[in-house]
Amino acid sequence: MIVAVPRESASDERRVALVPETVMKLAKAGVAVRIESGAGERASFPDEFYSAAGAQITKDTAALVDGAAVIACVGRPSDAVLAALPKGAAVVGFLAPLGDPAYVEKLAGSGATAFAMEMIPRITRAQSMDALSSQNNIAGYKAVLIAATLLPKFFPMLTTAAGTIPPAKVLVLGAGVAGLQAIATARRLGAVVQGYDVRSAAKEQVKSLGATFLEFDVGDAEGSGGYAKELTPEQAQAQRAFMVEAIGKNDVVIATALVPGRKAPTLVTADAVKAMAPGSVIVDLAAEAGGNCELTQRGETILSSNGVTIVGQTNIPSTLPYHASQLYSRNVFALLAPTIVDGAFKPNFDDDVLKGACIARDGKVLIGGPA
Ligand code: NAD
Questions:
Q1: Measuring from atom 10 of ligand 1, which residue has the nearest CA?
Q2: What pLDDT, in 10s, does the model give residues 35-47?
Q3: Ligand 1 centre and the CA of 176: distance in Å?
Q4: What is the rounded CA–CA span in Å between residue 254 and residue 332?
Q5: Single pTM value for the model
Q6: Is any ligand 1 atom within 6 A of the Cβ of residue 258?
Q7: Alpha carbon separation from 371 to 95, 109, 193, 360 (Å, rounded)
């Protein structure tokens, strides 16, 4: 069995799907790994590290995927990889299938067996494969560091000979994986932190990190599988109105609220931005899904008319590429390990985890019903 790892094609992608540590683990399981030259370079894993771990390095896409059972990617594979795909080969990666049926059709049309990392069920058994969590954890951490760098103030309280500096006030909207890590990181830097979420279970989690919970009961907002559901227009309007004053009291807002497969909810209106003091910072981790802030511009950092910096940077996990790749690589290994039987790729498609992640197989679309 051969696992092939292409160089990622997105220009802002610095991560690599498999790191040398995982190459060695796969070798122990009787699996050979082929790496496209330079695939790990931007994550600080040069070709020599892969060679030392026993991987074969190749410069040519056709040679890379020739005879491979699995193509391991971070994002979507390039068209060149899809075109050269061996019959029945599996593609693993963040394939972003929700809301893009045309792309899933294209994947199915390529003959690939496609496993989308973001579709792995969030069940206890699959925690080691949960790439959404491993990467969102990084996003939450990095969002706070970005805010701390941009804020013209200290985060911690300081008592100096020149007088006392009060701590920065940070509000974290959405207390899922990214939000909880943002709360923990902002607390470590000494800020006074408030967390907010529509799920009632989030309250205890926010408090356990030493933050206070911003109380606003929006009514029923719990969806299935521990996720939030989209609010009704009335609920959303009430939430936005409440947020204006709450947001205005903070120096930093880290916005992480998401509803799977939907546009991100707007929690920070233009009025809320106006209510913040000049120099305040909003880091909108939901920018990729349309943003939690009305003024966010995807991929850009902008200054509002009243001097608030709004960060709409996307793919933040890629800015910590060494550890992001290491954790992602472990997630991919955990997904693949049960599919390796006597050194051959034999996925059990009746398994709930693989079934949940598999979005295309034998030319058929398997997400949202048959094509
Ligand atoms: P997510 O990225 O989908 O959303 C981030 C947060 O935004 C969520 O906490 C959500 O409740 C919140 N949100 C959505 N709409 C909102 C609104 N209008 N206002 C305020 N907040 C809003 O979430 P996630 O980080 O993927 O976590 C989702 C759930 O999955 C959580 O319950 C988490 O504990 C759970 N989880 C379970 C496992 C596991 O058991 N393996 C692993 C990871 C996460």
A1: 228
A2: 999 999 999 999 9
A3: 4
A4: 29
A5: 0.95
A6: yes
A7: 17, 11, 47, 10
